[in-house]
Amino acid sequence: MSGQVLRLVLATANPGKAAELTAVLETAEGLADVELVPRPPGLAEPDEDADSLEGNARIKAGAVVAATGEAAVADDTGLEVEALGGAPGLRTARYAGDHATFDDNMAKLLDALAGVADRRARWRTVALVAFPDGREMVAEGVCRGTIAEARRGTAGFGYDPVFVPDDGDGRTLAELTREEKNALSHRGQAFRALAARLAAPRA
Predict the structure, then answer these.
(1) H helix runs in 27-138, sequence order
(2) Residue 47 bears catalytic tag
(3) I need a labelling partner for 163 at 20 to 30 A (CA). Which of 23, 87, 102, 121 fits?
(4) What confidence score (pLDDT) does residue 4 get?
């Protein structure tokens, strides 16, 4: 799609997530002509009832395509903790309940791991673009790390204050700058891979 302006409507209403994926896509190599459009105000959130991250991303992007008639970009992300059998997984955003806040979710996670030595975890993000003609492109990113014993840092959002990436220097994601986080995070990886697919010429 190189050489064309690619207009994508963001499926997310999360300002932190929107800022991250905008920063990645708008600076991706070979994808200079991309226009990212905010999620339409008042658009209802769809039920994310799929049994996979890809399925939930497809639901979110598809809802925006149906509402706007334009291509949409969405993602779904899960935190998988080894000692918790892969939880919270698909319920990452609702780990402490359907109306849980980020603080609620982190508090429940830290309580669940109190006294647990094995704190290995990984983030997985599936990024997806859906087009009005039914085509789609999908990419995945993974960031491995550990869950800290206490919150550290004030940047980012979600579980960032309790996740220490293996490829970093011991800081949590919330202690990194946006550029540092995007360089190694699951979401940064997924959207860079997606950008490469979007930029590749099609036969």
Answers:
(1) 53-68, 102-112
(2) no
(3) 23
(4) 64
Of 75, 76, 98, 167, the catalytic one is 76
Q: Which helix (H) or strand (E) holds 36?
A: strand 34-37
> What one-letter code names the amino acid at 145?
G
**What fold is seen in the domain 6-199?**
Maf protein (3.90.950)
User: Which residues partner with 122 through β-bridges?
Assistant: 80, 144
Q: Which helix (H) or strand (E) holds 10?
A: strand 6-10
pLDDT digits (tens, 9 = 90+) for 168-202: 999 999 999 988 988 888 988 998 898 888 877 55
So where are the chain's domains?
Answer: 6-199
Instruction: Please say if the pLDDT value at position 203 is more than 50.
Output: no
Report pLDDT for 192.
Answer: 87
Beta strands in 38-189 (DSSP E): 72-81, 88-89, 120-130, 136-147, 163-165
* pLDDT in the model for residue 2: 46
Record the tokens describing residue 43, joined without a space: 């658009």
